[in-house]
Each structure stands twice: as structure tokens, then as C-alpha cells.
Amino acid sequence: MIRTHRLPLAQLMFVTLVLGLPGLPLAGTIVPEDDLPVTFRAGMLVLMGWVYLGIVRFWRAATIVHEDHIAVRRLFRTRRTAWSDVLGIGVEDDPSSSRTMLLDREGRLFALPGGVGAQPAEVRAIKDVWVRSRGEGWTAPAEGFVSAARRRASAMVSAVFLTVGSFPVLLLVGFVLGDVWDWDGKGVPVLFQGIGFVPVVVFTVVYQVAVRRIGRRDTADMP
Question: Rounded to two decimals, what is the model's pTM?
């Protein structure tokens, strides 16, 4: 192993406090409240569970550079890619982003975690190891291959943004309609009772639709 890249402790503590602390009093308020529908309470617990899993992911996430491969550690698994299977490493095309992206031979384009993109010197060091270790048989990927990988990565980002945005929008609509129609605890429509499950459903649907559309486009682009 050459080096492990992880977020600084100060950033990890900040994320933990900002995302984790609000959930504790919220859970203490919602769970024992008998006037709230069971579906609503269960959905909110599911939503908070995803938040805390996200916090754990921040703590586990790391990019580990070895002489013969690079390892990307996430929440439940560590993805190891031999340097010969890496087709590209570089900063994301979006000018507003500093993420460092890796493209592998299977067409997966993903960000290297651990704050790699925050330090240009670290990015150069990783690329130097890759160039030195990828072997003589390495060839640059075709433009169509790179474009397809970018479309798939974009689909994931879009699904995440729509997932995160769906919850506050639906919550605001629920507050407005509840005030207008004077809903009581048992009279809340099922859609708003299960508001905590909405992000999970939205992500699944949006991502699957996007992947299928991209797959059809890639097929149409094939000679």
C-alpha cells in the first residue's frame, strides 16, 4: 500500500453533527406519538436510517492506492481495480466540481472518495502511479465508450438529486394541504403518511428509467 486518502477528522465531525444530531430529537418526538399514523412513523424511521447510513459511509469512504491496484472503500464493500483496468483518471468536466473521476474497463465512471480532488498534488500522485503501473498493453478508450460512461454516471447523479428534492417538496405540500383541509392524525392521506418511503421509491424508479433510456441510446449508437 502506498497511501490512504480519507476526509479530515474535522470534516467528518462536522458532517456527523449537522446530519446526525437533528435526527435524535426528531425520533424521540415521532416514535412515541400515538396520534401519528403508523405508516408515517415507520417511513420517518426509514428516512432517518438512510441519513445515519450516509454518515457511516462518510466515515468509511476512502481511496487506497497500491502498487498494483487502486481500492475504493464505500459503505458495504471495497472495489479493487487493477491499474491495467483503469482507462482514465481526472477531474470531473463540470467546472463547479473538484471531484476526481475514475473510468474502468467495464465502463463504470465513479468518483474517488476521501477528498482526493481537493488537493491537485494528490491527484497527480495517483495518476503517476497509474501511468507507471498500467502496463504496455494499455490503450486509450474510444470516445463513444467514454460518452456512454458519462451518461450512466449522470443518471445516478440525477436520481440522487431528484430523490433528495422529492422529500422536502412533498413535505411542504403536505403541510400546506393539511393546514387548508385541517387533517387530523388519522385523516392524513396514504401518500403523505408514507412520505418517508418516497425517496426510496423515487430513486429506484428514476434510476431504472434513466438506465433503460441510456441502454437504448447506446444500442442505437452502435454501428
Answer: 0.74
